[in-house]
Amino acid sequence: ELFVSTKQLHLCAAHMSSCFVNLPAFPSLTHLQLDGCVRHDSNDPVAVATTTITILQRVPNLEVLTMFFEAGPHEAELEEYPLHKEGELLDAHHLHYNQYDTLDLATVPVPRCLGSKVRRISLVHYQGGRAQRMLARFLLRNAPLLEKLFCELAEGPLWIQTELVREMETWVMNERASKVFV
């Protein structure tokens, strides 16, 4: 309870999961950064998205949301072994895209901050797995006051990056919002 009046909060976990759902309300919080791994092959992508949404329901005055999607263990292993063949490294990217993924979270209530306060969303090391896309779609489609979207895509094939950017641009509710993709 010592931290409920904080204005900025940075939460880290090995995996973005339910470990944060028992947080208290943070009525003064305006900036939130969530760091963790969201695997593209998550068994329950809806749970990953609803966990983040549950956190957002506890921060009614949030204006800036940063999601840092950490790399899975595979990428860390590659850094430890720099003697891989070039082809192995090219095939080891973390980008994913499946146009047939179901991304709806129809029954999830929209956190008040998304509809009335959030002005900036940053998605760092966005890899495009189903859980990440489901979450990004929900956030962007429910943030009418969004002024800036920043998305740093994970390394990978240009065609996947292009599809992810196109998809994300259609989700942004505010047509005047600045969209930066790197």
Layout of helices and strands, plus pairs?
Layout: E1 8-15, E2 31-37, H1 45-56, E3 64-70, H2 73-80, H3 86-90, H4 112-116, E4 120-126, H5 130-141, E5 148-153, H6 158-171, E6 178-181
Parallel strand pairs: 1-2, 2-3, 3-4, 4-5, 5-6
Helix pairs in contact: 1-5
What does this structure look like?
This protein has a 6-stranded parallel sheet, with helices on one face. The protein has 6 helices and 6 strands, in the order E-E-H-E-H-H-H-E-H-E-H-E. It is an alpha/beta fold. About 4% of the residues have low confidence. Helix 1 runs parallel beside helix 5. The longest helix has 14 residues.
The gist of it:
By secondary structure, the chain is of the alpha/beta class.
Entry keywords:
182 residues; alpha/beta; six-stranded parallel β-sheet; 6 helices; FBL13/AtMIF1-like; FBD; FBD domain-containing protein
- Cα radius of gyration in angstroms: 17 Å
Query: In percent, how much strand structure appears in the residues?
Result: 15-25%
Number of individual domains: 1
Distance between the termini: 38 Å
Helix content: 25-40%
Per the principal axes of the C-alpha atoms, what is the gross shape? Answer: globular
**Helix/strand/pairing class, anyone?**
alpha/beta
The largest sheet has its strands arranged as 1-2-3-4-5-6
* Whole-number mean pLDDT: 82
Poorly predicted segments = 86-92
Number of strands: 6
DSSP helical segment count: 6
Order of helices and strands: EEHEHHHEHEHE
Largest sheet: 6 strands, parallel
